Structure formats: structure tokens, C-alpha cells
Amino acid sequence: MFTNSAIEERVRAGLHRDPRVKHPELIAVTVDEIGTVVLRGAVATPRQRLAAAHDAREVEGVFEVIVDDLKVHPPIGYRRTDDEIRAAALQRFVGDARIRSTHIHVKVSHGHVTLTGYVREQPESAAAAEDVASLDGVVGVTNRIQIR
């Protein structure tokens, strides 16, 4: 059995080792008595948020990971319009061999992307969300793609 502090240290170490998480020092880690890890703070992209959650889930003794208070704050500078983000997302789907469905719909509002439609398998849905999360200008992703 791991102590809360041991789990916390392992999660922090995992965040620092992961090159996808650019500034792990901006992420606060807390662990409760049953192994629920809460990540708070800020990252630059949704992809970094997903990577941080993945790193925490990989630590032995972690029961659940909550990232509701891990906010995405893109760097200041040029920001893509919602239409540009939507176009980039659709283009990314065309170039990704993991995505075979032509029934994925993309809506963007103030940088937050909502995916709807349907695919045949869960990995295809996950690939679509991962592709969108890595796009410049995206501040959040809601994946409502159904599996049929």
C-alpha cells in the first residue's frame, strides 16, 4: 500500500519526466486517502492536460484522476479563429489513418471544440479527440462521438 505522499511524489515525478507537459511546476497535485488524485493549475494546451491526466493514471495506487481545475491557458499572441480551428480539425481527420469515419462533426465556440457524430470503435473516437486537442488555439475538447 502506498501513502498519499508517496503517490503525490510519483505523480509529480511523472509530470516532470513527460516532455509533453511543458511546465509541470504550474500543476498542483493532491491525493486523498483512497488514492484520488486532483490536478490543479494551468497548462498551455488540451493535449498537455490529457498528458498530465495520463501520467497521473499510470502511477500505482491511483484510484481516480480529477482534472476539472487544471485549466488551459494558451500562450498570448496570434489566436486562430473558430472557423480556422474547425478547418484544421477536419483536415487533421483526413490525414489520420486511425480515423475512418466521415460522420464526425466539429463545432467550435471561443476555441472550445465539441465533437459529435459516430464511429465504429472507441479508439477512433479517442484519436479524433487527441487530434483536436493538439491543434493551436484549442482551449478545450468535448467528445460526444457515439460508438455504433
- Please report which band the strand proportion falls in: under 5%, 5-15%, 15-25%, 25-35%, 35-45% or over 45%: 25-35%
Q: Give the averaged pLDDT, no decimals.
A: 92
Q: What class would the helix/strand composition place it in? A: alpha/beta
**What's the CATH topology name of the largest domain?**
GMP Synthetase, Chain A, domain 3
- Indicate the low-confidence ranges by residue numbers: none
Question: Given the structure, what is the number of helices?
Answer: 4
Number of strands: 7
Largest sheet: 4 strands, mixed
Order of helices and strands: HEEHEHEEHEE
N→C terminal distance: 40 Å
Radius of gyration: 16 Å
Helix content: 25-40%
CATH architectural label of the largest domain: 2-Layer Sandwich
User: How does the overall form come out from the CA principal axes?
Assistant: globular
Instruction: State the name of the first-level CATH class of the largest domain.
Output: Alpha Beta
Number of domains: 2
